[in-house]
Amino acid sequence: MSSKQIMGLLARQRGETMAKTEVVELTNLVLVSDNETNQILVEDRRNPDWPGLTFPGGHIKPGESFVDSAVREVWEETGLTVHNPIFCGLKEFMGEHGRYIVALFRTDSFSGELESSSEGAVSWMRRDELFEHQFADGVDKLLKVFDQHNLSELSYLNDPNGEFK
C-alpha cells in the first residue's frame, strides 16, 4: 500500500474527506489599453452588488475557453472585438456558493466602435484620472496584478484585505 493510500485510509477513519473537487464560479475581467491615446477602457457597472468603475468582463460559460470568454464579454459589454488577450493573473475569494475565481486578461489590440450596454456605461480614461472616480470594490488592487509581472494573484481566501502572490 502506498503512503498516499495509507494517508487516505487514516483520514477516512478520522471522518475526514479528501475532496479533489469543489464548487467554483469562473469569471473574467479584461484591461483594454489604447496605446495611441494612453487610455484604458473602463465600465461604470450598474450592478448594485458591485457598483463603480471596473473593466469589461463576466461569467465564463460551461465548456467555453477562458480566452474565448474574455473576447465575448468585452464584445457584449463594449462593442469592441479584442485580439490576443494575455492572461496575467487571478483574483479569488469565497462566495456564497463556493470559490469565486476571476481570470484577469490584458490587451492593447482591438477593433470596432465603442458602445455601452445594459451592463454599464463604457468610456476611455487616462490612468491618472482613474483615482478621481469611485472604483468597484477591489479594482484599485487589481491594477497591481494587471501591471506587475511579478504578481499573479490577489487572494482573499486567507486575508480579508487581500493578499498578493
Low-confidence stretches: none
Mean pLDDT: 90
Q: Compute the gyration radius: what is it?
A: 19 Å
Question: What class do helices, strands and sheet pairing give?
Answer: alpha+beta
Q: How many strand elements?
A: 11
User: Sheet with the most strands?
Assistant: 9 strands, mixed
Straight-line distance between termini? 37 Å
Specify the overall morphology.
Answer: globular
Q: What is the H/E order?
A: HEEEEHEEEEEHHEE
Tell me about this structure.
- By secondary structure, this protein is an alpha+beta fold.
- The strands form two sheets. Strands 1, 2, 3, 4, 6, 7, 9, 10 and 11 form a nine-stranded mixed beta sheet that branches. A two-stranded antiparallel ribbon has the order 5-8.
- The longest helix has 13 residues.
